[in-house]
Amino acid sequence: MTTGTVTWKRKSRITPTRVLLYGFLIVTSLLWLVPIAGAIFASLRPFSDTVRDGFFSWPRSLTLENYKDAWDQGDILRKYWNTALILVPALILTLFFSSMVAFVCSRFTWRFNIFMLSLFTAGNLLPQQIIIQPLFQFYNRVELPEFLSNSGRLNGSTWGLILIHVAFQSGFCTFVLSNYMKLLPKSLNEAARVDGASVWKQYWQIIMPLTMPAIAALATLEFTWIYNDFFWAVVLEQQGADRPITSSLANLGGEFFTNDNLIAAASMYVALPTLIVYFALQRYFIAGLTIGAEKG
Amino acid sequence: VDDVKRRARGLSQFDGHDRWVVILMLGIPTLLHVGLVWIPTIASIVLSLSDWNGIRFSEMEWVGFKNYDQIFTVFERNFFQALINNSVLLIFLFLFPTALGMLLAYLLDRDLRGTRFFQGIYFTPVVLSLAVVGFMWQSVIYSPENGLATEIFGGGGAIDWLGNQSFLIPIGDRFGVSRNFVAILVAIAWRHTGYIMVLYLAGLKAVDHSLREAAKLDGSNEWQTFRHVIFPSLKPINVIIAVITVIEALRAFDIIYVLDTPRRTEVLSILTTNNLLGEGGGNVGRGSAYATILFILCFGFVIWYVTNHYRRTQEGADS
């Protein structure tokens, strides 16, 4: 960290290199914004205008009508709720399970440490499509009582999606958390053991509070990943009213909406939660991506 | 002594209550992970030797390598096109998003006003859902009549960006890199660059800033400093990015699936899924055979990375 005055002086110096640098950054970031800005723009215009003049034309009028229509026609509130019912339990269970595995494998000298951690890490690196055929057949054959699943089976139920999210995502989280916990001083456990603290107490009261920065970072990251999941939801919950927002609106055309401007508004509803989380918690978000990377 | 050592590394280092706690803490997550990830992986390999429509077990037939045989003969057109597309994607990811992400990270890793602002913009596509990304590119950019790309390059006419299957770069008579696949590559680059940039930014933060200053005092120019000072110290992050890139190239699915173009854009993951959901759905054997091929392509790489990573950290822990 440089002090305020030094930074100020350095920043205010205008050199040709600096102008070139800013020019490059501004042009690329504008390019990066084009698809997003275009979608927002389209969502604010009546369909008839876009049809007449094209996407990139001076607007005759701007309106929030598309947002209102998309909200009603797409039943957005219900779909947010469906997503929350999958996301919240999956997020909590993923962090809980992976922190336990990471704790046992990184805080004790243990014969199968490396094997266990490798198993979880490698599992997370496999493409999801490798397991989809047997998983689909398995989900189709597990019967659930009606109060747990509208379809009467694991396939097409909220539980099925929660389970596969937890199973798959715990790979990455175990990897990151074990890297993090490994760096906490070994003496913490020894002191606790001398005091007669149980394993659970060492986990829950000593190591976990110290691991909170990593947990917070992973929580924001996993929120986004689970929310944005597309593949599991498309395959394992192909129909029904319980589908989460991303997959049910993925085939935006046809089923719910009649025109591109409505779809644009609906897609903004889909984008909103992750954008809010990202911009509000950017620091944690980036930290989550890089804890795993730096220590690797 | 050996026996004591072995005891100390096993379950017997815990007693009574603690032993059960440890077993449960490891057991439940492991059961779930192995049960839903590794056992299905093995099941895929086994099922790839079967002919089965997925309805009744009694109708399953073991056919040996017939599925693979069919993939290499009857379906070779789709299969080899998919292999080509996966490889093209891999090369493309290294050439463009990775290089650009590294450049952006390098430019942003200095005392610049607005660094976080630029960083935020480049990274935004990474957090967007594919439902949104698909719409943006399909309608805003690639709409045949009034998309932005059409308005800039169309010269007044319509361009079917995502439907044009003709080869931009032919490979032999029947294969190549199709124009609609290139259109998809652009969308993928848009989403991937910010991801790479953030990882490199983290890597650069770890590089000692005085190194850069020292190199500058020695009279090295910007490129020399980067080439000889910065880049070599980024080795750990380069390894990670290489791994991410290979894995992403092999498991690419979402954007390609959402942009839903008719043909010549298939990748291995799409072929696997099409045998489940698509028109020829319910073909468990062939779908599993595609999955197994995908697994073979990934697995060596995954094992190499994981063993490397944990051997290194183990050495770190022991020393």
Structural class of chain B: mainly alpha
| Mean pLDDT value of chain A | 85
Order of helix and strand elements from N to C terminus of chain B: HHEEHHHHHEEHHHHHHH
How many strand units of chain A? 0
Q: Roughly how many Å is the radius of gyration of chain B?
A: 25 Å
Unreliable spans of chain A are: 1-9
Q: Number of helix segments of chain B?
A: 14
Q: Structural class per helix/strand content of chain A?
A: mainly alpha
Q: Could you characterize the architecture of this molecule?
A:
The complex is a heterodimer of chains A (296) and B (319). In chain A, helix 5 (76-107) runs parallel beside helix 8 (158-182) and helix 6 (113-125) packs across helix 8. Residues 1-9 of chain A have low confidence and may be disordered. Chain A has helices at 4-12, 16-43, 47-53, 65-73, 76-107, 113-125, 132-141, 158-182, 187-194, 199-228, 231-236, 245-248, 260-280, 282-295. Chain A is mainly α and 296 residues long. Chain A is globular, with a radius of gyration of 24 Å. In chain B, 41% of the residues are buried. With 319 residues, chain B is mainly alpha-helical. Chain B has a two-stranded antiparallel ribbon. The radius of gyration of chain B is 25 Å and the shape is flat. In chain B, 71% of the residues lie in helices and 4% in strands. At the A-B interface, helix 1, helix 2, helix 5, helix 6 and helix 7 of A face helix 1, helix 2, helix 4, helix 5 and helix 6 of B.
